Structure formats: C-alpha cells, structure tokens
Amino acid sequence: MQAPWVIGLTGGIGSGKSAAAKAFAKLGIHTVDADDAARWVVESGQPALQALVNHFGEKILHADSSLNRAALRELIFTDAEQRLWVEQLLHPLIRQAIEESLAQARSAYALLVSPLLIESGQHQRVERVIVVDVPTHIQVERTLARDKVSTEQVQAILAAQMPREQRLGYADDILSNHGNLNELELQVAQLHKKYLQLLENPHD
C-alpha cells in the first residue's frame, strides 16, 4: 500500500497541539506523536536505553530500571557536548520509529505531531504544515496551570523555542486556539474536509 499523505502539526508550548491531534484522531486520522516516539526508543529493554546507561551510569535510572528523564535532563542541560551525544544516539532511532508508525496508517492521510517539526527539519518530510497558534500570554497561562512550573521556567522554554512569528511563516494552515475546545474542533473538521478535497484533486 502506498504511504499516505503526511501532514505535520506543530505549535509552541501550551498552544494546544495535543487537543488538535485528538480532534483529528476522532475523525479517524492516524496520528503519530514525535514525543511518543522519543519515549518508545528508550523503554526498558531497548538498545538505546542500554547505551545511555553505559555512557552515564545507572544514576539515570529509576528503581524499576526505567529511564529517569529528569536525571538525564539535569546531566545534559548544561553540557552541550553531552546533549549532542544523546541527540546523535536518539534522533535517528526516533525518526525510524516515526516512519514505521506512519507506514501503518490506513486513513486517507496521516498526522505527524511534533513540537520541533520545523527546528528538526521534519517539516521537509510532510506535505503541509499546520501551526496551532495562540497569543504568548495564553501559552504562559495554560502551561502554568497544566505543568505547575514557575513563570521563569515557562519563559525559559518559550525563549528556547522558535519565535511565534517565525513559526507562523512556515504554516500552510493555522489553527487559532485562543477559544474553547468546540471552536478548535470545528476548525479541525474544516481542515479535514479541505485535505480530503486536496487528495481527490491534488492540482486544485
């Protein structure tokens, strides 16, 4: 079976990527989340986890031998060389896991959800890019409520991500998520209809 059309979905922290992805999934669309793929490749028993332990030692493990992400983050957060080593180990495996999951899609098109869709170059893999967009102050409010972190931490994450205007420059389609869930789902339904029409008439 031919690999499906793949549409990328991205947005800054607290923009509502997960809610948008769920709305597409409710319409029967096969969705692959890059964050999920990043978890799959370091599950217990996976070679990548053993490679991390060989490199950093067992201090990066929980008592049940699963990866302690917070401990790993702490080790690489201030050490660019170690962070690069981890990225070179994991990124090819994550890409492979994403491709394997996309290949299983049986829906009209598939959705790749990734917070770093543009920064990682994954946007070059997709037919269209959807950006879930909200004003920055709403990003901060939602992230504070969801993650129970400090305002300083949220601002640091925002500073590390691609600026809003730059991200919007890559968008083929925009989901404006400053309203409620019903409004978001209506926009998703409209995009879904548009994509089905594009698939039927690709040269329109």
TrEMBL record:
GO terms for molecular function: dephospho-CoA kinase activity. InterPro entries: Depp_CoAkinase (IPR001977), P-loop_NTPase (IPR027417). Its EC number is 2.7.1.24. The keyword Lyase does not apply. ATP binds at G14, S15, G16, K17, S18, A19. It comes from the Bacteria. Pfam families: CoaE. The keyword Kinase applies. Pathway: Cofactor biosynthesis; coenzyme A biosynthesis; CoA from (R)-pantothenate: step 5/5. It catalyses: 3'-dephospho-CoA + ATP = ADP + CoA + H(+). SUPFAM superfamilies: P-loop containing nucleoside triphosphate hydrolases (SSF52540). It is found in: Cytoplasm. Transmembrane segments: none annotated. NCBIfam families: dephospho-CoA kinase. Catalyzes the phosphorylation of the 3'-hydroxyl group of dephosphocoenzyme A to form coenzyme A. This is Dephospho-CoA kinase. The lineage of its organism: Bacteria, Pseudomonadati, Pseudomonadota, Gammaproteobacteria, Pseudomonadales.
